Amino acid sequence: MQEPDLAKNSVLQKTISDLGETLETVKGYDFNQGINYSEILSNFDKMGFQASNFSKAVYEINEMLADRYEALDEDELDVYEDDEFIKRKHKCTIFIGYTSNIVSSGLRENIRFLVQNKLVDCIVCTAGAIEEDFIKCMAPTYIGSFELDGKQLRDKGINRIGNLLVPNDNYCLFENWIMPLLDEMLKEQKDNGTIWTPSKVIQRLGERIDNEESICYWAAKNKIPIFCPALTDGSLGDMMYFHSFRNPGLILDILNDLQRINKMAMKAIKSGVLSIGAGVSKHHLMKANCIRDGADYTVFLNTAVEYDGSDSGANPDESIAAGKIKPDAHPVKIFGEASIILPLLIAETFAKFHFSKTIK
């Protein structure tokens, strides 16, 4: 009996395209070669799935770094800008955005490396990313478990961030440290007419923390602005709320910060974005790049999906439609959890670039 033609033609349809002429062959790392982490990561481009997106992100970041360190032409020098924090310093201005949980985790040290070594130009983050940076200078965060009972933790005065544990006493230490600084800022506002913005508050706190483990310390020292449009949405907001009763009158000008970040974006010869996590930090830095008709290089790293219409889950193509990424750009989104992906991504890009430059 002969097999049915319909079934045979459907199952054994002929391929009419030679994929091998234009596409990579899928091939994993062969551990018979021994353990070589650099080779393992280099092989990700042939691995498939999110490993391939990781490799594309490595290429995208290395492209922005290559542009960044081309010498500025004489007519590109930002000689008329008095604000050292937003002054154009490189051919490619690199914006990095991240959420509070990034700093709660051990990724804080990864971000600090970038800021300490002047590998980024502008930071956008949430309030928790600011306060957690300072709180860790005063007391540690601990590894716990995702399954701990919330009521028992509350009764013991312990906060849980995923599987991280933060004693509530840490926030009391933060209150003791920050209240005199808020008094100082209010006095300057009254005596000198100082206009405080979220970024200038963060700068002052970074100048006062005197701790080289802090991201904000290095940002203030290296004149890298940290923009936080939702500065009151966290423990820092709680402290400002309490301060408004004890010593009322402190005012923050959010619009001034909006002008500063938009000015940075508009002046950028080329613009590169690395967004870790999503929410307000992702949208705010992408909105700034919309002002300049889109970023040239973009990497998103998050776990959000687009099916609910959220900006958090929006894929890069949606950002192109909104004018936040240039139409001819090659943006990349890695669907992945940052505590695993980001250290590897930095190792293959910023860190390699920094140490090769240092050795030379």
Automatic annotation (TrEMBL):
For the protein in the UniProt heading, the enzyme class is: transferase
Keywords, alphabetical: Hypusine biosynthesis, NAD, Transferase
Keyword Acetylation on entry: no
Q: Which InterPro entries match?
A: Deoxyhypusine_synthase, Deoxyhypusine_synthase_sf, DHS-like_NAD/FAD-binding_dom
Stretches assigned to coiled coil: none
Task: Return the EC number.
Answer: 2.5.1.46
Reaction(s) catalyzed by this protein?
Answer: [eIF5A protein]-L-lysine + spermidine = [eIF5A protein]-deoxyhypusine + propane-1,3-diamine
This entry's Gene Ontology molecular function terms read: deoxyhypusine synthase activity
- Gene3D superfamilies listed in its UniProt record: Deoxyhypusine synthase (3.40.910.10)
Q: Which pathway does it operate in?
A: Protein modification; eIF5A hypusination
In this record, what's one Pfam family? DS
Might you report a single GO cellular component term?
A: cytoplasm
Cofactor(s) for this protein?
A: NAD(+)
- State the superkingdom: Eukaryota
Q: Which residues cross the membrane?
A: none
Family, per the entry?
Answer: Belongs to the deoxyhypusine synthase family.
Q: Which PANTHER family match?
A: DEOXYHYPUSINE SYNTHASE
Please state what the protein is called. Answer: deoxyhypusine synthase
